[in-house]
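Hey, can you fold this?
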Amino acid sequence: MEKSKDCPLCGKKNAIKLIPYERKFRANPGPKGIIGNYKIMHSGGGYDYSHAESCPKLVHAYEKKYLLQFYVDGYSDVNRSDGLDFEDYEKFFLQNNFKLEVICKRNSPSYSQNKWTFEASLYFFGEPFDVVHLVSEGKEPERAFEKLKHRLLCGDLIETEKGVKLQLVSTYKKLCKLKPVKS
C-alpha cells in the first residue's frame, strides 16, 4: 500500500495518509497458571480520511469522510441507505427533470471474454444526453445504483451545464427536494 495518496477532489498532495497496522497483545486478569489468557487487538491498516473536513470540494457534503473514501477507494465502509428503491428515485428525479438509468456496458472488446459492468447515470433533461452528471459502476445493476444512491445521500453535488449545483435533501423513506447550493 502507498504511504499517502493525493486528494482526487482538490489535488492536495499527500493529504490522505496510511495508518500503520498494529497488533497488540493484552493479558486478561485471571488465575495464575492458565495459558492463553490474552486477547489480540488489531488497529490501523487503512487510510486516514480526516482531510475531508478541510477539503474545499466537500464543503456542502453531509458525510464528508465516507464521500472522500468513495472517491479514493471506489467504495465506502458504511453504505448509506434510506429504504427506497430504484423506482422511487427514478420517479423523484423525473419530477425534477432528471433521468436516472442503469445500463449494461461491455468491459472488454473481445466477445470470448464475457466481462460486463453496469453503470448508473444521472442526466438532466434539456441538455444533450452525452452530458452525465453522476456516474457509478458495479458488477450488478443493484450495486451500481447503490453506489450512486450512497453518493447522493452523503451529499454529493449534482452540477448542471449552466453551473447550478444541486444537492439531494432526504429523510428516511422520503425524498424531499433538490436544493440549490451556492459556491
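Oh, and this one too while you're at it.
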Amino acid sequence: MASSSVFLLMVGGQIETGEFPEFDDIYCKYCFTYGQDWLITSGLEEGLTQVTKKSKDERQIFTWNFPLDITFKSTNPFGWPQCIVQAYGLDAFGTEVVRGYGVCHVPITPGRHKIQIPMFVPESSSQLQKFTAWILGRRPEFIDPRVVASGEGREVTRVRSQGFVTISFNVVMKDMKKLGYDVIPFRSDFIHGPRECRNERHINRNMMKNRSFMMF
C-alpha cells in the first residue's frame, strides 16, 4: 500500500469558561482559520454558544462548556489552524456589542491542553468617536474577525484588554511521522495565555531538521 501523503489533525474540546467581571449575559462565537494546504474532513468550522450569566460567587465566571469537534488534513504544517473566539453581550441600551476578541493556535502536540486566551476589543481613534459610538450604540468591531489571527495591519490597530476565555483541547494526530514530522505527546492541566507557545513547543529536534515548521 502506498504511504499516506497527508496527515490528520483531530481536535476536540470545549469552550469552557470566561471572565468578564464588568458584564453579564455573554455568548461566544468561534471559528477556525488555517492555511491554503489545509482541508476540513469532518466537524464544524464555526459555531455559536448559548448565552450564560456569570456565577454568583466571588469568581464571577461564565460557564459555557460548548463542545468543539473538527478534523483537518494537510500535507505540511504551514498555516497551522488557529481558533478565533468572539464574545458578545448587551450594552445599557440593549444593543448587542462585542465584549472581546481572542485567538490561539491549536496545540501542536498531541494530548490534553487548556489555554486561557486574553481577550481584547478595538478602541475608537479619538474621544469624539468614542463618545459618538457610545451614543449610537455602534462600538468599533472588526468586519472580518479572522483579522485577529493575522499580523498584517495589527500594529496600527488600537485595542484594549478585556477579559479571558478558557478553552480545552484534546488533540490527536495521525501519519505525521510518516511525513517526517515527529511530535512528543504533552499533557498540561493549565496553560495561561502567552505561556501556551513556550509550553507547547516540546518538539523533537529531528522535526526541525527534516522540515521547515512555521506557523502564521
